[in-house]
Amino acid sequence: MLKPGATIGILGGGQLARMLALAAAPLGLKVHVFAPAGDNPAFEVAGAHTVAAYDDEAALAAFAAAVSVVTYEFENVPAETAAFLAARVPVLPGPRALAVTQDRIQEKTFINAIGLPTPGFAAVDDLATLEAAVAALGRPCVLKTRRFGYDGKGQTLIRPETDLSQAWEAVGRQPSILEAFVPFLREVSVIAARGASGDVVAYDVCENEHRHHILAATRLPATLGGTAAHAAIEHAARIATALDYVGVLAVEMFVLAGPDGERVLINEIAPRVHNSGHWTIEGAETSQFEQHVRAVAGWPLGSARRLGRIEMSNIIGDEADGWERLVAEPGLHLHLYGKAEARPGRKMGHATRVFPG
Fold first, then answer.
1. For residue 332, what are the β-bridge partners?
2. What mean pLDDT comes out for the span 249-275?
3. Which of 18, 21, 64, 272 would suit a FRET pair with 290, their CA atoms being 20 to 30 Å apart?
4. What sign for the dihedral angle of Cα 206, 106, 263, 137?
């Protein structure tokens, strides 16, 4: 268990690392951020930072010597980086969680292996296997790269009229996964934390609205029947336990109609704090960021009790120019991430509204 005054290392310098650093400070814990050169808003609020490539072993060794534990703000940390650090300092969540979630085939295979449901899927390595997979799963379906995709990048929808050779080109002819199209009613996620002692604390199910493949809004309570909501939380807890996970993770799911009521299918796992959990900063007794800090520090987890009805909206691209109107709204909690450039599709901040009830 870390004591106040200890330093947590974070790989990645974006807004999630920034909010983790802000959550660590009131607990008396320090943060050292390691990231390559670029726009790293976390540097502004961290006690220390290192600018270096993820394969710079000399910089990584010095970083490991300066911290008591290492965590990360994004799941595409190179496996070699995680292994190098893990030989010198605890890395939480552990390298296994990274390995499973960095590859969509491994991730869905793992989820099915522990008895949880996903949409149908097949591995695609070339045009011939794509043709066979489409024949098996039917159209429409979704072709995604196995690695490094997020916010709709690295994927394409295959419609009845889609030319498969063009779809294969669209994903860069990279190793991919074909997923059956799911006629979902809505998208939800569960933010859960697992502590070093194995205890799991989950927040209420979030209902998520995406626009152009980017999360636009999260609302609570979710429009979801009690049985399905209970199943969603149980699924997240089972995943965290099966991965021997320490920290916060998000499990994104589809809600489907069924003859016996609504049910959920798991879409993907994010082994980190998550955009759909930003509402917890003002809307829960313990934010997801404090919860993650507590978990990797070996501290008891906090309460995940929701404090009201919640609406969280992402601020994307030049929407950040409207900050003056937002900050003037009574009861609105504005978070701007300090990014240097507002590009289309770039998350510049978020706004949270907490209502009684």
1. 353
2. 96
3. 64
4. positive
**Does 102 reside within a domain?**
no
Assign residue 14 the CATH number of its domain.
3.40.50.20
Residue that terminates a domain, selected from 148, 180, 212: 180
Q: Over the range 326-356, which residues count as b (16 or more CB within 10 Å of their CB) and which as e?
A: beeeeebbebbbbbeeeeeebbbbbbbbbee
Mean pLDDT, range 109-133, rounded to an integer: 97
Q: Average pLDDT, stretch 220-246? A: 97
pTM exceeds 0.85: yes
Q: Is the distance from CB of 129 to CB of 135 less than 8 angstroms? A: no
Residues 284-304 have a mean pLDDT of 98
Q: Is residue 163 part of a domain?
A: yes
pLDDT, average across residues 2-25: 98
Number of domains in the chain: 3
Element spanning 214, H or E: strand 214-220
Distance CA(8)–CA(32), nearest Å, equals: 6
123-131: long-range pairs with CB below 8 Å, 24+: 123/175, 123/176, 123/177, 123/178, 124/175, 124/176, 124/177, 124/178, 125/175, 125/176, 126/168, 126/173, 127/164, 127/165, 127/168, 130/164, 130/167, 130/168, 130/176, 130/178, 131/164
Distances (CA, A) of 67 to 31, 50, 62, 88, 91: 8, 12, 9, 10, 11
Number of other CB atoms surrounding residue 261 within 10 Å: 10
Burial classification of residue 88, based on how many CB atoms lie within 10 Å of its CB (0-12 exposed, 13-18 middle, 19 or more buried): middle
Q: Residue 151: is its pLDDT beyond 60?
A: no
Is the pLDDT at 131 greater than 80? The verdict is: yes
Question: So what's the pLDDT on residue 84?
Answer: 96
Residues 214 and 326 in one domain: yes
For residues 77-98, average pLDDT: 94
| Domain extent at residue 295 | 186-355
**Same structural domain for residues 156 and 198?**
no
The answer on 239 and 158 residing in a single domain is no
| Domain-embedded: residue 109 | no
Torsion of CA 266, 271, 272, 275, to 10 degrees: -30
pLDDT of residue 152: 55
Distance CA 341, CA 348 (A): 9
